[in-house]
Amino acid sequence: MTDGILTLDAGALSAAVRSGEVTAVEAVEAYLAQVAVQEPEVDAFLSLDADAAIAAAEAVDRARASGAALGPLAGVPVAFKDNLCTTAFPTTAASKILEGWVPPYNATVVDRVLAAGAIAIGKTNLDEFAMGSSTENSGYKITRNPHDLDRVPGGSSGGSAAVIASRMALLALGSDTGGSIRQPASLSGIVGLKPTYGRVSRYGLLAYASSLDQIGPMAATVKDAALMAEVIFGHDPMDATSLRAPIPALVNALMEGVTSFRVGLVSDLLEVASPAVASAVGRAAATLAQLGAKVETISIPELALGLPAYYVVAPAEASSNLARYDGVRYGFRGNGETAEEMMVASRSEGFGDEVKRRIMLGTYALSAGYYDAFYLRAQRVRSLVRTAFQEAYSRFDLLLSPTSPTTAFKIGERSEDPVEMYRSDVCTIPSNLSGDPAISVPFGDEDGLPIGVQLMGPALSEERLLRAAFALESARAEEGER
Predict the structure, then answer these.
(1) What is the Cα–Cα distance from 124 to 113, expressed in whole angstroms?
(2) Is 81 a catalytic residue?
(3) Annotation marks residue 156 as catalytic
């Protein structure tokens, strides 16, 4: 069994640890060996602690030997995006302004994952403060796509996606403000779920745009994503936006199929996709129809307004949220003869170019004389997007679209053109504006580069999304076996 540890999904590995067939130490050592091989090329981690991971695994094995009940993720190696607070690792959000900062508390999701028995391997790279679509905007290094080291893994949760794609951890957490879980999932060939806003506690997440941010699971399979979701879902009194919704039995529901589903194929998002991506989405639609779903094309022209609205709302919130990083209380401090000069130096030297660009955009949009013209109008557009989704979901159970318009692009290809980079999120942003859940699942490739398709649903429809994603994943696996 120990030779096949890397082939087990999270549920199977945890079951093997609980039964004693595999020890947690053996599981962690297998993944650390993979890290030793893959990490020098992929550069997905910002911090690693092999000794602490082994010590945590030993504690799991001792608990099992004593007869203690083990959690659903017992012995499963996990990685956390480095904008989630952790007491055992620095939390930098990939920014020099927080270099070396170790929080005094864990994010709620971190505590829940660790309480379920998972073993933290390390913290993953991201675009600084989650602002980017390629993980090229990190203040520390560029993460590479395991499928082609000359290409990006997507962003901003590119490090988490690359860790899963290169099998350096079995599960990871990312955050999604405009597609930062789903887009890298698509480009890296893994599964990424953005839950309903409020489904998962944001306590301990370093905020980018508070009305849009959501934490979610990233995994190699739909079943693993469902298992991780069951662990992190649930109300948290530490987060005022946390919902009091019951946690569905997501894993048990996966096999129920899609025969009763009405699926809308979003033509407006197909039009922005490359031919290969559009073809993959078309095949996914045909597959769902073959499995018993009723699939029809739908046009939602309001979704085209999502991209410009997002790039007013999100920078405006970032301008407010990032005001706290001033060199006074913690993090990097620049030199200056006065407090004002020190703050200016701290922010000018501590933040990278993309973060400064978005802070300036947001501050401008909120400034006197421009608030109504930009921010207020963007919020009205956001309401239009919400209303359009509500109308679509009155006719359909789920919507199907591309996740990303293209496959992974080359490192440096879009770095000098921020607008072209922003277009990478055109398919994912609408669900953030509405607060509804969405998932990306691999369903094809072009020249060896993965293609993900996106399923979107109304609020609290994660069970439905995971069932449809599992159906597509299973159909593709069966096709590959033939």
Answers:
(1) 16
(2) yes
(3) yes
